[in-house]
Amino acid sequence: MRQNESGGKEQGTTEFKKPIHVFWHEDADGFKVDTDPAGDEGGGENAGDPTEASMTQDAAAPTDDSGTQPIIGHRKPHKEEKRTVPIPATLEEFADKLEAEIGYKTTFDIVLREMTFGDRRVAFFFYNGFAKDTVLTEVLKRLTYLQAEDYGAASFHDFFRLYVPAIQVVEESDWEKMLTDVLAGGTAMFIEGESKVLLIDAKAFPARNPEEPTLERVVRGARDGFVETMLTNVTLVRRRLRDKQLRYEIIRVGERTQTDVCIAYIDDIVDHEMLEAMRDKIKNLKIDGLPLADKQLEEATVKRGWNPFPLVRYSERPDTVAVHLMEGSIAIFVDTTPSVMLLPTTFFDLLQHAEENRQTPFIGTYLRWVRFIGVAASLFMLPLWFLFTLKPELKPPALDFIGAQKAGRLPMVAQFLIAEVGVDMLRMASIHTPTPLATAMSLIAAILIGDIAVKTGLFVNEVVLYMAVAAIGMFATPSYELGLANRIIRLVLIVAVASFKVEGFVAATTIFFIMLVMERSFNRPYMWPLIPFNLKGMLSILLRVPVLQNRKRPIYLKPQQEDRMPNGGESR
Fold first, then answer.
1. Residue 131 CB neighbours (<10 A)
2. Quick one: average pLDDT of 58-68?
3. Model confidence, pTM
4. Residue 170 carries which DSSP code?
């Protein structure tokens, strides 16, 4: 005999004359059942178990009509579901509940506009800074045109279908969901005596106009960029990607902030296994809030620990996001931030820039290689020059000019470290300096600090020169996060060269390369297409391939459709 969900017994099963002790336990496959007839000789595996001994005292439990002892079950309790809180019936109860829960009459921006139409008492509940007064005014006008007899016979359905002239109106019977919607900028229309409220989408968020992102400027191309309002951002992408397969899924994250998070993808291209994994991570995220938006969401879902290299790509350009969506990537929009997360990503994706695709293939390839050289210089120029200074015999004859012509008062490694920290301090100072004073600060940094440091003998000229070249290479890196990570690697290489010379440089470089090879971004190889090697993918990285010749999507994304071009790329 088995116990069904209602606690009764199933018909047509074997009856036991002794009480059956059911032990429920949970494993990876769900709940499992172990049964053991009480009083069996030998006792089985659970003989002598005090829990079982105590259960056998129930052997004298009354039997049912068939003479069978009832099952004694032990089940792991289910997680308690969140119950629905009803809407108060009267306007006084509604106002008192608002006062007790959200501080109505204490918080100045909470508005409860009470009105009487005919014999129906109505209240509009909203936050003053979020409400769009033009929409609410039209709703009030429509209601004031009705006669008293119309309100007397009006039902909640009439208000919903006929009397509220707003584009987006939904019914809601749960108090908590109503509060969440109003906190997100909506307006709740309460009608006394009804068990539901009408949620009117009359939002007017404080927002700025789309402007060109400061970190992703282009000479040719669009000048619009994302803003802090998520609805504006998804619309900018939708304008460029008029695909019926484009999907926007909304999830609210954070116990207190209730931040809107949007997962964007193209349904017939994206890898659904990766999509499902990302969706589950966001839905199961337990956090009090995301006031810092995308960065906190990244740390909570990616969980990369102390790895300095970015595992997602950020972009503030709608055209860049549209391109990645068409390749099979997933875009994560977070409300209140102009940055969009693109995942998965690779090390070479972080070196791409929109400017390369705004030029001809030849010029785009040239710009890409200049950027590669700059990034390589920011990583290895300083450590190699330092190594040649310490080991002059390693230099070929053609490079005899490399090396310090004279020694400074400070050790060479100290000069490098001070210069690195100094550049970071200048970068942070430029961020916090008002724009009219930025030029003056640059002059102070270039003349007073750099020139005087060399003349006093604290620094040698070569250190300042190569440090400037490395800084330019870092600023030429398209990804700001990757540029900062490369700076940390450069510092480690300098310390390794100072400590162990050639062996230190080789060992540190090898360790970092192995770390990059072993890294994965959402179960995708971080160093693709170099490792694992893919010839076509590597050519698309090294060369800016013409559009009509770039027919395949990156295979590391596992897209459902590998061909970019309709009908196999045929064109006339």
1. 22
2. 43
3. 0.79
4. E
